[in-house]
Write a structure and sequence with these properties.
Elements: E1 7-13, H1 17-31, E2 35-41, H2 49-57, E3 68-69, H3 70-73, E4 77-83, H4 90-93, E5 97-103, H5 115-139, H6 153-159, H7 163-175, E6 178-179, H8 180-187, H9 192-204, E7 208-213, E8 216-221, H10 227-239, H11 245-258
Parallel strand pairs: 1-2, 1-4, 2-3, 4-5
Antiparallel strand pairs: 6-8, 7-8
Helix pairs in contact: 1-5, 7-10, 8-9, 8-11
């Protein structure tokens, strides 16, 4: 994403500077060379020390974080003003000259001491910022070294409607690469043609890629999938492990029994 002048971004929270400051730290970490980033709160407070330690623990830089008030930044020009609370009103936004407003109403609790709450907030903001960067790159027709393929959302979600295909994606997300024999054992499917047909559907949709080793074919998640597809697969896998507990246990036994990451 090449640009002669940095875009100015302002994150605004309401009575919870944790939200806007995590967003500021994340965007600066991901793309500081393209953006000047600010965070403000309707009622700014001193940056919480526990919050700072948590952000540093995730590898982010906190040296430039500031708790600005809306008044201090009013009448300034921003390319993006991103609101993080439904409490923020139109009159609050009217303080600024902005090219585009994005509404990201975050409903995460304000409990800074709760680690799981902090991780949930971090994960949600990370996903939204990643999508913002991806859309900005596409809008500017930027070429990247890691070329992404185009995936039709309807076709993608249709692929998830079959039990074998969905579990295959979750299992390959965990193991990285699996062959037909692995999947037959894990899913307790006796029909190789049935498993192969579903793998062929995923390959045709460009969701899976293959690698041939001798007479065996191994399947893995296509690394050129766009971010939103990878996110759906990752989130589905992370939040639905109960769906594949038995297949995972079965695969674990197979891998241990062969002492080899590939069983074929």
């Amino acid at each position: 994403m090449k640009n002669k002048q940095k875009l100015r971004v302002l994150f605004i929270s309401a009575n919870n500077s944790m939200h806007s400051q995590i967003a500021e730290a994340l965007l600066r970490y991901k793309s500081a060379e393209y953006f000047d980033i600010y965070s403000a709160d309707i009622h700014p407070t001193k940056i919480d020390n526990d919050l700072l330690q948590a952000i540093v623990g995730l590898g982010l830089n906190t040296t430039k974080l500031s708790s600005w008030s809306l008044t201090e930044l009013s009448r300034q020009q921003f390319d993006y003003v991103i609101t993080l609370s439904e409490e923020i009103t139109k009159s609050d936004i009217s303080r600024f000259h902005c090219q585009q407003q994005l509404v990201w109403n975050i409903t995460t609790s304000q409990d800074k001491a709760n680690l799981s709450t902090f991780i949930t907030l971090f994960d949600e903001l990370n996903s939204r910022i990643s999508m913002l960067l991806m859309s900005k790159k596409e809008a500017m027709n930027t070429s990247t070294t890691d070329t992404k393929i185009q995936i039709d959302p309807i076709s993608f979600y249709k692929c998830l409607t079959d039990d074998i295909r969905l579990k295959t994606l979750i299992l390959t997300h965990y193991y990285g690469e699996l062959c037909v024999c692995d999947l037959m054992s894990a899913l307790q499917e006796e029909s190789q043609p049935k498993v192969s047909r579903n793998l062929a559907v995923l390959k045709k949709a460009q969701i899976l890629k293959t690698r041939k080793q001798g007479q065996w074919v191994f399947y893995r998640i296509n690394e050129q999938l766009p971010l939103w597809v990878k996110s759906v697969i990752a989130k589905t896998a992370e939040n639905n492990t109960q769906q594949i507990i038995n297949p995972l246990q079965q695969l674990s036994k197979i891998k241990k029994g062969t002492n080899n990451p590939t069983t074929c």
